[in-house]
Amino acid sequence: IFGCGDFQGIKGGIKQLLPRSAVGKTSLVIKTSVSTCTALLKAYGLIMLITFAELLVGLGIMNLAGYKTGSIVTISLVIALIDILPVLGTGTVLIPWGVFEMISGRIVSGAMLLALFAVVETVRNLIEPRLIAGRLKLHPFFSLAGVYIGGKLFGAVGIFIMPLAIMVFRQLLRQKNSAAE
């Protein structure tokens, strides 16, 4: 509470402790970090919303076709929330559910669930690099590579850390190049 009350004073005190050359870089890193995190959260929120809509439509079609799946809004929301987690995904729910339906003799229902999984995953794999790249104003290759490498190196946190590190590095290079000119 006290920190929030005198944020400017604390910020000024920290700036006085830092060497003059580091103040600009530190400020740039903080601004880039905040804007990158905001952009990533917006991109992943949009991906989650799109996944939710796809699941809602897919499960709704199944209900209209006579294959009752339960509360499609709740199920779609839970699966979309699971999908946003890097280790899990829609396959964690839809594949076992589809296989169970097939084993239970409901072949068409199981096939529809597996087809829904294929559609959701295809759309996500197509839009995720573009959305992240668009929000970060970064080439899709670098954004996808950053998310993938970050996920492999640091797990769930890495999908945010690596694109953030790429953005900070890019901003520092831009600042260095503009100072050299």
Q: Secondary-structure element sequence?
A: HHHHHHHH
Q: What global shape is seen?
A: elongated
Number of helices: 8
Distance between the termini: 44 Å
Give the biggest sheet: none
Helix % is over 70%
What class would the helix/strand composition place it in?
mainly alpha
Q: Classify the beta-strand content into a percent band.
A: under 5%
Total strand count, please?
A: 0
Our Rg estimate from Cα atoms comes to: 22 Å
| Mean pLDDT level | 82
Regions with little confidence, pLDDT below 50 for 5+ residues: none
Reconstruct the topology from this structure:
Layout: H1 2-5, H2 7-17, H3 20-64, H4 72-83, H5 91-103, H6 107-136, H7 140-154, H8 158-180
Helix pairs in contact: 3-4, 3-6, 3-8, 5-6, 6-7, 7-8
